[in-house]
């Protein structure tokens, strides 16, 4: 993979050193040829978390505990890791990302005790995290969630259902968002719930286009202590949005990684494939396609690392910039991968071909952490709000 974008002004030597560390892990550990069997996928995901923890990679997506002021995730490092991991192994990228997203609410709003209990284990790869927000009737419309958390003595009781939960079935804990009052989005609170909590059950494992650990989770009288509350009561919606804001740009980075791998595969195919007495690369149609692919990738990367840089360096909220990055990068990556597959002809749709795998890997990124249509709404509303200001 070309790494010359690390010379862009968004990065410093620490980012380049971290990129080299991730590359080293990928060379020794990444294995994109994951079998689709659920047990094998679960095992591969757990192994990836453990070995990334051992290598120190996860500390970039999970803030350190202690030392007074709370450390923040370095968005550029997270994006660098996701781009490189996705280039090599989509499941490894998934495992890395979920350690950050799944523990993000604890990092942002957890008490000192909650942070000390969970964050070191997540960073070391000894505990697997999950972010439990979506419901059967509340995906993009988060404010419509119906899972309830009712006070009961010195604690809470959870009832309801979550679905499309990444790491569902293999997580050690879930950051769960539930309704504690009927005050719309202001009636949602967040809780950290251990996977072995009584009344929490994996109702269904979900198999999707690219093998990932996903599940529907049911809460039936799930009793948790008072200190399971993350932050203040009624601030769960804001906490969920803040968590997504931090990690949404990293989804774009993963899409860039997938697209870069597709471009490299397309270039190799164009140079080696004989056609009409020459090489596929000699045809102007091929050159135009490769030019469009390369331009789309750099455009996406610039938007991605701009969002990360603004958050890290300028310290501003990047809702609009992250939405732009995710929208452009995921939609462009789909087109780039499709074009790369087309250049491979029939071989491109054969199982085991890199383009066939990437075609399955990219599709979910246009949906999770906010579908493309939602990103367009976010951007448009932000533009209108700025014009009113």
Short key terms for the protein model shown above:
single chain; 389 residues; alpha+beta; 4-stranded mixed β-sheet; 4-stranded antiparallel β-sheet; 10 helices; globular
Q: Into which percent range does the helicity of residues fall?
A: 40-55%
Total helical elements: 10
β-strand number:
10
Poorly predicted parts: none
Q: What is the ordering of alpha helices and beta strands?
A: HHHHHEEEEEEEEHEEHHHH
State the secondary-structure class. Answer: alpha+beta
Any chance you could write out the topology, listing elements then pairs?
Layout: H1 13-29, H2 38-55, H3 75-88, H4 90-109, H5 112-123, E1 129-132, E2 148-151, E3 155-166, E4 173-179, E5 188-194, E6 200-205, E7 214-225, E8 229-230, H6 236-272, E9 274-275, E10 278-279, H7 284-314, H8 319-344, H9 354-363, H10 372-388
Parallel strand pairs: 1-4
Antiparallel strand pairs: 2-3, 3-7, 4-5, 5-8, 6-7, 9-10
Helix pairs in contact: 1-3, 2-4, 3-4, 3-6, 4-5, 4-6, 6-7, 6-8, 6-9, 7-8, 8-9, 8-10
